[in-house]
Amino acid sequence: MGFGNVGRAFLRLLISKETELRRRYDVRWRLTGVGTRRNGWLADPDGLHPLAILNGRWPAQHHASPARNVREWLEQARADVLFEASSLDVHTGQPAIDHIKAALELGAHAVSVNKGPIVHALGELTSLAREKGKKFLYEATVMDGVPIFSMFPLGLPATELRGFSGVLNSTTNVVLTEIEKGRSFEEGVRRAQAMGVAETDPSADLDGWDAAVKVAALAIVLMNAPVRLEQIRRTGIRDIGEEKIRSVRASGMRYKLVCRAERRGDGVDCSVQPELLLASDPLANLEGTSSAVRFDLDVFGLSLVEHNPGIEATGYGLLADFLRAVCG
């Protein structure tokens, strides 16, 4: 569902790793449906030609009655797994929530790169997946292919997450880096768009909404805190000023859009805002699309850094969840 930069990167990865998936995991796959705003609901249970789809050659519909909605599309495709990569609506999580519900109700696993369903419907979707004996997975929603959500139950059992801090939005990091190099704000945005990390309308990134949704997702899943977006203090990077960004860089400091969450009593205090960091701060050393997060646990601290990921890293997050779903 959705066939933009992420969907295309994921399909390329599936093709390139087809032999490995078969030999190492005994997993075989067919692409049986693609849903897009431009081309509608395309479905063929016998399999679409993935290379043709990647090259923009969309076949004619094989069904006498083309699908009118996501449920009919999934039924015509006979889907075993839905990959939800539609555009994010930060305020409602729709229509991604309905897409995932339909998939689970029809007996398909649901793998999402869309953060909205976590923030707005995690409990409902997790319960539905459990009821249907299927998986609802979302590793690629934060830091692409870094195994954050799967790491905690498997690799960090019996730990308490007391807080976290990090730089989690690639677009703002690219824009700030480009401005430091002498380019304008608009040139930095165009650079991020050319790299495939920024949307045509980059407002959600620049105004801190994307980062805020990621903070909420981490707090909800890992800290079991019912955080709502309106509770997160949020400021974007538009108003810092290009000369200010360059002048502090010349003095050995850097602006970064920093995400923070800290447990306070029964709640969690969350924020997303530009911060002026000393050169000694690990977050200050992040370049380009790199991102990082530090988790403050009751027994130790743990930092994860993703170095200059491309869109393929997000595609890998979908691939990893695909294997988790179908391999048990």
Rg is 20 Å
Strand content: 15-25%
Portion in helices? 40-55%
Order of helices and strands: HHEEHHEHEHEHEHHHHEHEEEEH
Query: Strand pairing plus helix content: what structural class?
Result: alpha/beta
Q: What is the β-strand count?
A: 11
Structure annotation, total helices: 13
The overall number of domains is 2
CATH topology descriptor of the largest domain: Rossmann fold
Oligomer: single chain
Strand order of the largest sheet: 7-9-8-6-10-11
Distance from first to last alpha carbon? 23 Å
The CATH architecture term of the largest domain is 3-Layer(aba) Sandwich
CATH superfamily heading of the largest domain: NAD(P)-binding Rossmann-like Domain
Described by the principal axes of the CA atoms, the overall outline is: globular
CATH uppermost class of the largest domain: Alpha Beta
Uncertain parts = none
Sequence-ordered SSE layout with sheet pairings:
Layout: H1 5-16, H2 18-25, E1 33-36, E2 40-43, H3 50-54, H4 70-77, E3 81-84, H5 96-105, E4 109-112, H6 116-132, E5 136-137, H7 148-155, E6 161-167, H8 170-180, H9 185-194, H10 203-206, H11 209-222, E7 233-234, H12 242-250, E8 253-264, E9 267-278, E10 291-297, E11 301-306, H13 311-327
Parallel strand pairs: 3-4, 4-5, 7-9
Antiparallel strand pairs: 1-2, 6-8, 6-10, 8-9, 10-11
